[in-house]
Automatic annotation (TrEMBL):
<dbReference type="InterPro" id="IPR052207">
    <property type="entry name" value="Max-like/E-box_TFs"/>
</dbReference>
<keyword id="KW-0805">Transcription regulation</keyword>
<keyword id="KW-0539">Nucleus</keyword>
<dbReference type="GO" id="GO:0000978">
    <property type="term" value="F:RNA polymerase II cis-regulatory region sequence-specific DNA binding"/>
</dbReference>
<dbReference type="GO" id="GO:0046983">
    <property type="term" value="F:protein dimerization activity"/>
</dbReference>
<dbReference type="GO" id="GO:0000981">
    <property type="term" value="F:DNA-binding transcription factor activity, RNA polymerase II-specific"/>
</dbReference>
<keyword id="KW-0804">Transcription</keyword>
<protein>
    <recommendedName>
        <fullName>BHLH domain-containing protein</fullName>
    </recommendedName>
</protein>
<keyword id="KW-0238">DNA-binding</keyword>
<dbReference type="GO" id="GO:0005634">
    <property type="term" value="C:nucleus"/>
</dbReference>
<dbReference type="InterPro" id="IPR036638">
    <property type="entry name" value="HLH_DNA-bd_sf"/>
</dbReference>
Amino acid sequence: SQNPKVSKATMLQKTAEYCKKLKAERTHMQKESTILKQEIDSLNSAISSVQSQLPETGAPVTRQRKDQMEEMFDEYVRVRTTENSKFWIFSVLMSTLYDSYCNSVSTSSMEELCRTTMAWLDQSGSLVTLRPKVLNALRKLSTSTPILTEPQKMRQHALQAVAKKAKGQQGNNNNMMSK
């Protein structure tokens, strides 16, 4: 009759030990949870800090992407100039606008594209901004091409200019591939 009492006492003792073990594990897990929460807060703060240093327009355009965009623009100008040499004159006038567009407009999302395009248009599309840019481009055209002195040679000049630019890009692409 005493054996059942001992066994009940042993069972109670083992239960008490198990409860202590569970309580210790719970305390350990609570400490670990607190440490992990602090680490999460710290990482969130670091992420916020880094994000606050990023440009508003998204990631800056990489040099490779900018070069690729310039190549596509130049190819478009070349094709259109072979169709109509007057397009080359238009491209000279538009190149400064194209450059400012590429530097100002973000394509990180459709909303960013719309917002930054409208901001660029407000800043660069006004007559006050366009007049000096067009004047400088016309001055450059009139002093570096035969447009005023020998207008009949303008077609040949335009075709040579786009061919020279295309040839220069092919040389650059070959140099990049050999590196």
